[in-house]
Specification:
- About 35% of the residues lie in helices and about 30% in strands.
- The protein has about 400 residues and is α+β, with helices and mostly antiparallel strands.
- Strand 9 and strand 10 form a beta hairpin.
- Helix 1 packs parallel to helix 3, helix 1 packs parallel to helix 7 and helix 7 runs antiparallel to helix 8.
- The protein is elongated and about 65 Å long.
- The chain starts with 10 loop residues before the first strand and ends with a helix.
- The model has no long low-confidence stretch (mean pLDDT about 90).
C-alpha cells in the first residue's frame, strides 16, 4: 500500500476499472472491459500533442506481427474492421535462415499450418488511430489525462491519486503502462532484469522483387538477428536485433547505407532494397524483464508492465493482447459475491497466464542466447537443429499452433 502526499481531493471519479496507460494494450483493455459491462476510467500521462504532419506521413517504422488471438480480440471490439486495410499485410510464410557456410533453414507457411494466414503486419499508428476512434464512441469510458502521485489499496478497492488533487476510485487497477510501469513500482513487485546488449534497429524499404507475403529472418551470429517483414506492395519493414556497437553504427548510417549492408542477406530473395520516404532509422534497446508477479492486491498487470521479451519471435505485443483477453474473461466469469479486484479472481488470472508467458520468455531468451553466440560448434549445432526441425512436420505444426494463438 502506498500513501500519496497529494493535495486535498478536488475531484472524485468512481468506476469499476481504472486502467493506467496510453498505448495500444491500455486502449484495448478499456474497450474490452466496457464491452463486458464494466465502467472504466483510463488514466493517461499528460502529453503535448505533436503537430499533424502535412500529407502522407509515410510508413511507420514501428510495426507489430499480430497473431490470431490479437486479431480475434480486436475484431470482437470492432477495431479490426476500422483499421486502414490498405496498410495491413498478411504473413503467409516465414523463412528462417541460419548462419555460416553451411547455413540451416526452416520454413513455415499458412498451408502447412492449416490456416489462412500466419499473422498480420500492422503499423503502430494505424492500430492506435483505430483504437482512439473506437474509444470516442465507447460507453462508460472516461478518459483522464494527468500525472499519478500515489496508489492506495484497501480491502474494498483502490484509489489512484493525481498530483492535481483528482482521485480515481475503482475495484481494480490495471497497470498497462509499459516496461517502466508506475503501477508495478507502487506495488513493490520485484523484477528480474537483464540487458541483451542489443538494440532493435528499425526502418522501411521497397524491395525490387515481390515478397509474396513471406517474412524473412536471418540468424547471423556476430551481426545479430535480421528480420524483414512484409508490408503491402513490394515493401518490407526491417527489425535488426544488432549488438550495441553495431547498432550504434547502423543508427548513424543513412537508410541507403543500411539498405546496401542488407544486400548480402536480402539480395538473393528480395532484390535491391530502396529506403521508403521519409527515410527513418530508429533503434530500441532490448532487455528481458520478468516481474515476480502479474498481480498484487487490487492490481493486475498486462502487456510490457507484466513481461518484456526479446522481439525475435515477434510476440511481445501478442502476449499483451492475450493478457487483456484473459483478464477480462476471468473478471467477467467471477462469482456474484466477488468484486473485480478480488484476490481469488486475480489469482485465477495469474495462473491462466503463467504457462504462456513463461514459455515465451524461455523460448525467446534461449534462442537469443543460442543464436547470439559466435562460436563454430554452436553454429554447427543450431544449423543442424534448423534443418532437423524443418523435416518434422508434426513438431512444426505444434510450434505454429502455439504462435497463432486461439485459432492455432
Amino acid at each position: 500500500m502506498t500513501s500519496p502526499s497529494s493535495p486535498p481531493v478536488r475531484r472524485l471519479i468512481q468506476s469499476d476499472i481504472c486502467i493506467v496507460g496510453n498505448g495500444a494494450i491500455a486502449k484495448t483493455a478499456a474497450l474490452a472491459f466496457t464491452q463486458a459491462g464494466q465502467s472504466v476510467t483510463m488514466l493517461s500521462p499528460p502529453t503535448s500533442a505533436p503537430a499533424a504532419a502535412a500529407g502522407d506521413p509515410g510508413w511507420d517504422v514501428r510495426v507489430y506481427a499480430l497473431n490470431h488471438t490479437a486479431r480475434d480480440l480486436l475484431a470482437a471490439l470492432k477495431v479490426w474492421g476500422a483499421l486502414d486495410a490498405a496498410r495491413v499485410a498478411p504473413v503467409d510464410a516465414m523463412l528462417v535462415n541460419g548462419d555460416g557456410a553451411h547455413a540451416g533453414g526452416l520454413a513455415f507457411d499458412a498451408y502447412g499450418a492449416r490456416t489462412g494466414t500466419l499473422a498480420w503486419i500492422v503499423e503502430d499508428r494505424n492500430l492506435n488511430q483505430a483504437l482512439d476512434a473506437a474509444l470516442q464512441f465507447a460507453p462508460n469510458v472516461e478518459l483522464v489525462s494527468g500525472r499519478a502521485s500515489g496508489l492506495v489499496r484497501a480491502a474494498d478497492g483502490a484509489a489512484v491519486h493525481l498530483d492535481d488533487g483528482t482521485v480515481i476510485r475503482a475495484a481494480l487497477v490495471v497497470g498497462a503502462d509499459g516496461a517502466q510501469s508506475w503501477v508495478r513500482g507502487q506495488c513493490d513487485i520485484g523484477l528480474d532484469y537483464r540487458a541483451y546488449g542489443q538494440c532493435a534497429v528499425v526502418s522501411n524499404f521497397a524491395c525490387e522483387l515481390p515478397h509474396h507475403g513471406a517474412a524473412h529472418q536471418w540468424f547471423t551470429g556476430a551481426e545479430g538477428i535480421i528480420a524483414l517483414l512484409p508490408l503491402p506492395g513490394n515493401q518490407v519493414s526491417l527489425v535488426w536485433s544488432a549488438p550495441d556497437a553495431l547498432a550504434a553504427t547502423l543508427r548513424r548510417a543513412s537508410a541507403a547505407q543500411l539498405a546496401a549492408r542488407l544486400d548480402a542477406y536480402a539480395g538473393p530473395k528480395l532484390g535491391a532494397l530502396t529506403p521508403l520516404k521519409p527515410e527513418l532509422v530508429r533503434d530500441i534497446p532490448l532487455v528481458l524483464m520478468r516481474p515476480h508477479a502479474m498481480t498484487a492486491p487490487r492490481v493486475a498487470l498486462v502487456g510490457d508492465a507484466a513481461h518484456v521479451v526479446h522481439p525475435l519471435a515477434g510476440h511481445g505485443m501478442n502476449l499483451g493482447f492475450a493478457d487483456v483477453a484473459q483478464l477480462v474473461k476471468t473478471v467477467s466469469a467471477r462469482e456474484p459475491q466477488r468484486g473485480a479486484g478480488d484476490e481469488r479472481v486475480l489469482a485465477r488470472y495469474a495462473r491462466a497466464r503463467k504457462e504462456d508467458v513463461l514459455l515465451m520468455q524461455l523460448t525467446t531468451d534461449g534462442l537469443a542466447r543460442l543464436f547470439g553466440a559466435d562460436l563454430e560448434p554452436l553454429r554447427v549445432v543450431r544449423n543442424l537443429g534448423l534443418n532437423l526441425l524443418d523435416k518434422l512436420p508434426m513438431l512444426k505444426r505444434r510450434l505454429i499452433s502455439h504462435a497463432l494463438g486461439s485459432r492455432g
